[in-house]
Amino acid sequence: MGDLAGQLASGKPLTWVFAGDSITQGVHHTHGSRCWVEHVTERVRWELGRPLDVCINTGVSGWTAQGVRPHFDHLIGRFAPDVVSVALGMNDCLDGPPGRPRFADALGEIARSGLDLGDDDRPVTLALHTPNAIAGGAWNDPAEVAAYSDIVRDLAAQTGAILVDHHRHWLNHFDGAEPWEWLDEPVHPNAAGHRAMADLTLRTLGLGL
Fold it and tell me: Is residue 209 part of a domain?
């Protein structure tokens, strides 16, 4: 497992890959504002003065861990990344309780494959993200979003990955209220929600904000 602080301190340009679903891709629901990956990219390449770092967003709307797994090399591996970010679970949780083992297996394989891209001389930093909390009227069951978030938490603990826990952060921030301030509709974050996701990601990675 890579040491992101050490990687940044080395001065070597890094390649960052962000894999995920529509929330990573940043489709539609920002209405022209930056998505969370774009905010992270701005922080890394401009504010931190790392213009030679390359940040690649391979999020695919509607995708799941089982969808990403067979396309791992195309979406992640071929870029030989130094930092791998994986944010999945929102679509996966539509499969309910029967889908939980499949999600754990597929996400686990993606995580291990990401770590295996590195070696002792060039370890990979892996970040796993829980999905955001949702509001009433969603096609997703909030209990399943929570259960699938637990799977991400467990996998991060097992692999030593950095856990970016959006789900817990949103629940704590809204203290039991529905998170409409950060949503464009019951599931997808709006511009403010993406800003919140970016800020938590950056804080968790030790990159400020």
Answer: no
